[in-house]
Amino acid sequence: MPGSSLSSRTVLVTGASTGVGVETARRLTGRGATVLMHGRTAEEARAAADMLVATKGVDAERLCTYGADFARLDEIEFLAHKVMAEHPDLNVLVNNAAMAAPERHTVTDDGNEIALQVNFLAPYLLTCLLAPALAGGPGGRVVDVSSSPHGTAPIQWADPHRARRYSRLAAHARSRLTLTVFAADPRVTAVSVHPGASPAQGARHVVRLCDPAVEIVDGAHYDGDARDDLDDLGSLSSLGERVALARAATEDRTTGRPTGLGTQGDVRDRDTGRRTT
Q1: What element of type H or E holds 92?
Q2: What pLDDT digit, counting tens, does each position of 123-138 carry?
Q3: Is 201 exposed, middle or buried (0-12, 13-18, 19+ CB in 10 A)?
Q4: Which residue from 84, 90, 95 is spatially nearest to 129, judged by alpha carbons?
Q5: Are 117 and 191 contacting, i.e. CB atoms less than 8 angstroms apart?
Q6: What is the pTM of this model?
Q7: How far apart are CA 20 and CA 59, in angstroms?
Q8: Per DSSP, what are the bridge partners of residue 11?
Q9: Beta bridge pairs of residue 92
Q10: CA 25 to chain CA centroid, nearest Å
């Protein structure tokens, strides 16, 4: 069933230079949206946009490109401020940028395990900084592109950056779990989605979730592998299960009190994403 026109929508897609991201950008422009394509560098984003124009018939006027390395939080701040200045009418943020955890434990210049920062902390910060635009108009929403392994590794609050017991598979799964749980954040309407087996399938699901005419369950997680067509957007997780998951992932295991990402001395402000102590 063809979707409704998105001609009045402006969508920022992170990680839009390859895979699900670039295919999502192509499909969104086909529905009439203005798409802000993010790449790790401005050159990567521009090359992806040029490819869409040259080989896919995409209207260049519907594309804008931005570069920011998610391993540097200062670049995320610059990206957010630039987007807010140039596109204050932003309607949708697709948090798609991600990386596989490296073989060896790697810490960014910001002091975070790199997969946790790229896959969660940077999208978290970007979402918080863009929240005024996303929450300012009707139909604003965030689509967090997660993955099916997110449920295989709990968050170790005593060692969130896995400095003591590093496993690349566990680090990746943990970073995806935190992003999935983040969709239950109350400041903006948000969902998470496991896109499925292919970029085409994943982009189809992501674009559908971007459509304001499609009713979604705020905070829900959708699985693109669970059915061939998400026309009914059936969530695999009931609301009660989502609340339980969010509570389990955000409470200290010993005290039961909510806690931030990080040990004492590395607590991040919920609004800015920066360390507060």
Answers
A1: strand 92-95
A2: 999 999 999 999 888 8
A3: middle
A4: 84
A5: no
A6: 0.80
A7: 19
A8: 35, 92
A9: 11, 141
A10: 14
